[in-house]
Design brief:
With about 450 residues, the chain is mostly helical. It folds into two domains: about 180 residues, Preprotein translocase SecY subunit (Orthogonal Bundle); about 240 residues, SecY subunit domain (Preprotein translocase SecY subunit, Orthogonal Bundle), CATH 1.10.3370. It has 20 helices and five strands. The strands form two sheets. A three-stranded antiparallel beta sheet has the order 4-1-5. Strands 2-3 form a two-stranded antiparallel ribbon. It is a multi-pass membrane protein. It comes from Neolewinella aurantiaca.
Length: about 450
């Protein structure tokens, strides 16, 4: 405990780090304040009563509400949060894999290309926000959330403008946190929205299990175990050892080789991150969305009901399989063995026992395929874990934190933020955040660390 307080003191003593942390907390507080400001013309009480009568809504809307920290169901000016920007970023990233123009911007045009991609992402964010804003206002109206005292045309016009402004402002806050704060701003805003709901869910679960504290203690142990498993899948790497060519010291007959430099390629066990879960979730909600445009019989069919219930066996079997498939697909897109091989050739390095060129590329590809299998299975299990624990009697509000997108995002963002804080501590000759071991990406003699992180 004394070491913990000593670390906090060291963090506070670094002037630049202290200012960055305070700046980050200030902008997060502003973002959270915006989630409580209600849209003009919206009736929050009527909307809440309607949602309570329906039992909460479908999985997609519940997920959006989770990511926005409750702003979605509160008809807030920040109701769409940062999600349109995330959607635009994913679209631009996928275009970078398929469209040559975006490929050039990503890999060949350096800083100018990244600025151009940033401008495209922002413009696409505005377009997506306008569409989603109109859909959200329709959602409010259909659930009785529009006040009878406001003109409908004014409600629509002002609502779309305000929602778009709220999303753009959230995007601006995220970029400012990234530039002048600590951590990735956009990811931090999403994480804060998720964490906001955790104390309430924890409280509900404690009340439900008040007559069986042993069972509640077992749930807390299970939550800790799942969190540690998620940390392992997020940070786990397979190190492929490397050797670099010997350098000669001196000239002529007196020349002597130095000792061979050793290094490694860090291949991530889960190179795809949370993207497979996001893609799978988007496809799982598609049948429900299509049924909403059909007849009443289609909306009440057995298949649609199964897809609208995240605890149903059919939903989870298909969901698990899709996460595994998308993990392989996305890993194939982001991990390019040919780029590793080219890097090794330029650095005059090689993998011991493996010939250069095509053989090295095949070796790296085979290793990637092997480690992706357990990584994809564990990721799939984490994705369906909320349904499993909900079926075992855990409150659904708390069960959603037992895995899925929320837990992986929280773990990834927290580790990334701690890594940045630790970098400041180490640069100032202070002890890091952990006494033994290293946070992912911390220190180490590895030229390939940056290459592994980029891919």
């Amino acid at each position: 405990m004394m070491r913990f307080f000593e670390t906090l003191k060291n963090i506070w003593s670094i002037d630049e780090l202290r200012k960055r942390i305070l700046f980050t907390l200030l902008l997060i507080a502003i973002y959270r304040l915006g989630s409580y400001i209600v849209l003009p013309g919206a009736d929050v009480d009527a909307l809440t009563a309607s949602l309570d009568a329906q039992g909460g809504g479908n999985d997609l809307l519940g997920l959006i509400n989770l990511f926005t920290g409750g702003a979605f169901n509160n008809a807030s000016i920040m109701a769409l949060g940062i999600m349109p920007y995330i959607t635009a970023s994913i679209i631009v990233q996928l275009l970078g894999f398929a469209v040559p123009y975006f490929q050039r911007l990503q890999s060949k045009e350096g800083e100018a290309g990244r600025k151009k991609l940033s401008q495209i992402t922002r413009a696409l964010t505005v377009a997506i926000t306008l569409v989603q804003g109109a859909g959200y206002l329709t959602y409010i109206k259909s659930n009785g959330g529009m006040s009878s005292q406001v003109d409908e045309s004014i409600f629509w016009l002002s609502g779309i403008i305000i929602l778009s402004t709220g999303t753009i402002f959230a995007m601006w806050l995220g970029e400012r946190i990234t530039d002048r704060g600590i951590g990735n701003g956009v990811s931090l805003l999403i994480t804060v929205g998720i964490i906001v709901g955790l104390p309430t869910a924890f409280g509900f679960e404690l009340v439900d299990k008040s007559d069986s504290l042993l069972l509640f203690a077992l749930e807390m142990f299970g939550f800790f175990f799942v969190t540690m498993l998620t940390v392992m899948i997020v940070t786990g790497v397979r190190k492929i050892p490397l050797q670099f060519a010997k350098r000669m010291v001196g000239r002529g007959d007196a020349a002597a080789p130095t000792s061979t430099e050793r290094d490694y390629i860090p291949l991530k066990v889960n190179a795809s991150g949370v993207m497979p879960i996001i893609f799978a979730q988007a496809l799982m909600i598609l049948p429900v969305s299509l049924a909403g445009f059909g007849s009443n019989e289609a909306q009440t069919s057995w298949l649609v009901q199964q897809f609208n219930d995240f605890t149903s066996p059919l939903y989870n079997v298909i969901y698990f399989c899709m996460v595994v498939i998308f993990t392989y697909v996305y890993t194939a897109l982001v991990v390019n063995p040919g780029q590793y091989t080219e890097y090794l050739r330029r650095q005059n390095a090689f993998i011991p026992g493996v010939r250069g060129g095509a053989e090295t590329e095949e070796y790296i590809d085979a290793i990637t395929s092997r480690i992706t299998l357990p990584g994809s299975i564990i990721l799939g299990l984490i994705a369906i874990l909320p349904a499993i624990v909900a079926a075992l009697g855990v409150n659904q509000q708390f069960a959603i934190f037992f895995g899925g997108t929320s837990l992986i995002i929280m773990v990834g963002v927290v580790l990334d933020t701690l890594q940045q804080i630790e970098s400041y501590l180490l640069m100032r000759k202070y002890d890091g955040l952990v006494k033994e071991g290293r946070l992912e990406g911390r220190g180490g003699n590895s030229r390939m660390q940056s290459l592994g992180a980029d891919f």
